[in-house]
Amino acid sequence: QLQLVESGGGLVQPGGSLRLSCLASGVTLDDSAIGWFRQAPEKEREAISCISGRGGNINYADSVKGRFTISRDNAKNAVYLQMNSLKPEDTAVYYCAADRLFCSDRAVDFRYWGQGTQVTVSS
User: Fold this and answer.
1) pLDDT (tens digit per residue) in 27-45
2) CB 40 within 8 A of CB 121
3) How many CB atoms lie within 10 A of CB 32?
4) How many angstroms separate the Cα of 82 from the Cα of each of 27, 36, 86?
5) How would you class 42 by CB atoms within 10 Å of its CB: exposed for 0-12, middle for 13-18, buried for 19 or more?
């Protein structure tokens, strides 16, 4: 019965920043790993980051390492993705996903998904 609501996307110039939020309802997130994925036009879905239920395990794709930061606040049932130094190649629909497991880069391992939010990086 976990529901995820994603927000924070928009249009930003190269080098700019955005902060995405993933808010949960129905079930608390402290027992769930949360992954962030993105899908650009004409491309397959790509795993970009993941954080374990208690925050002890964090992963980043090489394409975003050093620029993106994932964090969570279990008291607020929220997970965040801070995106800095954005590039046109980051343009995609961004999704958060959850399941009761350790971090994975495979979309099939996540049972619950948000609706997605569009991020466009363009000058």
Assistant:
1) 888 789 999 999 999 999 9
2) no
3) 26
4) 24, 11, 10
5) exposed
- Phi and psi, residue 107, nearest 5°: -60, -35
Residue 89 β-bridge partners? none
Q: What angle do CA 102, 112, 67 make, to 5 degrees?
A: 60
The whole-number pLDDT of residue 26 equals: 86
Residue reference for tokens 């110039």: 13
pLDDT of residue 57: 92
- Profile the chain (123 residues) by mean pLDDT over runs of 10 residues: 94 98 88 94 95 90 97 92 98 95 90 96 96
| Radius of gyration of the chain measured on its C-alpha atoms | 13
Determine if residue 10 is left, alpha or beta; phi over 0 gives left, psi from -120 to 50 gives alpha, anything else beta: left
CA distances from 23 to 3, 51, 94 (A): 8, 14, 14
Query: Token pair of 79, please?
Result: 């997970």
